[in-house]
Amino acid sequence: MFAALGGLIAGFTALCVAELVAAAVRPEAGPVTAVGGAVIDRTPPAVKDFAVRNFGTDDKLVLQLGILVLLAVFAMAVGVLALRYRWTGAAAVLVFGVVGSVAAGGRPEGRPTDALPSAVGALVAAGVLYLLAGRLSPVTGPPPAAGETDGGETTDGESADGESADGRQGAFDRRGFVIAATAAAAASAGAGLLGRRLQASQLAGVSAARGDITLPAPASPAPAIPGGADLGIRGLSSFTTPNKDFYRVDTALVVPRVDADRWRLRIHGKGVSRPVTLSFQDLLGRELVERDITLTCVSNQVGGPYVGTARWIGVRLATLLAEAGVKPPSKGGPADQIVARSVDGMTIGTPVEEVMDGRDALLAVGMNGEPLPFDHGFPVRMVVPGLYGYVSACKWIQDIELTTFDAYDAYWVKRDWSREAPIKTQSRIDTPRPFAAPKPGTVPVAGVAWAQHRGIARVEVRVDGGEWHTARLAAEAGRDTWRQWVWEWPATTGHHTLEVRATDRTGATQTDKRVGTVPDGATGWHSVVVDVT
């Protein structure tokens, strides 16, 4: 037991010291973050899809807790090993440092210094384990007389760990172990708290700088949202999604806190005759446009929550590309893919043709009337209506390279997702909720439907596989946003299944065929089971 405890304390030391060193390097270099990022990079699409589906936005927390549990088990095992083989146990701790260092340095955005937190933490932890294991070694000297006590021994001649103290094996230095373990734990905790405080201080400065930003008024403001766009039905998603409720799906275990004053965006690559480097102030000084746009994550299951509408403000990406000399393939341009790179190493590939076809593709700097929240890409992100986020919505963007789909596979394409992914026509029942128990009579069945850049033309609802009934559509705010709908259901007593389907403005009706999210988005009709009583 004491040996395992010594291992746990050594593991705790490694994490705390690494946290302190990471404050001097950067938060993303911490061992749990680095290993977690490496795990995410190597996670098969099916496993990622399972995590998002079952844990939602808590998937990263679950991953980090899992890493900590495994580390604890490893630390206890190493502690037991060190009881008999001190040097071997201490050396085994260095494995922790190697894994963390390789994971940190091997990430796409990794820097040479990222290996330091894990390496330094492991070295200090190895020393702590060696010291604690020494306190567990038998104390040399003559065995005590029967019935006497010595430190951790019991009066029947056995030591506290159950081993004989009759001379075949001496008792360990319990008092020395407790003192050393307590000191190591306290010092480690102090280091960890200091590291957290230093990191918090650094982040507070960036947060304050964001709070000081005032976005200029857009030269092209968004049209007013029609009065009938939000039906105001209880349980129905609001037309505009508040920033705090907007979905977040990405691979960043630590949300990047980018200093807007130091941020730069480079535009270069195939077909770029005039490479461009822009600062945040350069973007704010340009003509800004404001638009209501609905974003959808490809991980959204049928009826899922990973869709939302916000009022975005930013610079037209097509304008910037044209100024750099870029032409779409339809006009003879040699590049058909934009590779956007984030500060956290994410790469997202977007078709050049779609970005330059006249739609409101933006380099967004604002969301719902304020600078972008850190969670949603501050200071700058991409927003492209009609494309799933994994091929369009690069957050914390810092580089745009023009290339071809044949020449380069972006992050998700390497993991078996499709190169191109226009958003599929979908609809969702928001109310009544699954397994609700409404009263007989008129029950509003309401929800949202979306087909960005095509628009919703019709929504239909049916009960228990019967005939389809046309729902009343809310006023349309634009073809790039979702649309609310409602059908007044004359509910009768019993167990019922409600289903919904939508038709977009091209005349295409969503299919009933259930398909998962991989490789280019889920399909199928959303259904809700209720019990009218």
What is the ordering of alpha helices and beta strands? HHHHHHHEEHEEHEEHEEEEEEEEEEEE
Residue windows where pLDDT falls under 50 for at least 5 positions: 146-169
| Form type | globular
Mean residue pLDDT: 92
Total helical segments: 10
Order of the strands making up the biggest sheet: 2-1-10-5-6
**SS-based class:** alpha+beta
Most strands sheet = 5 strands, mixed
Question: CA-to-CA gap between the ends?
Answer: 58 Å
* Radius of gyration computed on alpha carbons: 29 Å
By DSSP, the count of extended strands is 18
Percent in strands: 15-25%
The percentage helix is 25-40%
Short description:
This protein has 10 helices and 18 strands.
Give a written overview of the molecule.
The protein is α+β, with helices and mostly antiparallel strands and 533 residues long. 31% of the residues lie in helices and 21% in strands. It is built from ten helices and 18 strands. The strands form four sheets. Strands 2-1-10-5-6 form a five-stranded mixed β-sheet. Strands 3, 4, 7, 8 and 9 form a five-stranded antiparallel β-sheet that branches. The chain has a four-stranded antiparallel β-sheet with strand order 11-12-16-15, with no helix packed on it. Strand 7 (362-367) and strand 8 form a beta hairpin. It is globular. The two termini are 58 Å apart. The model is unreliable at 146-169 (pLDDT under 50).
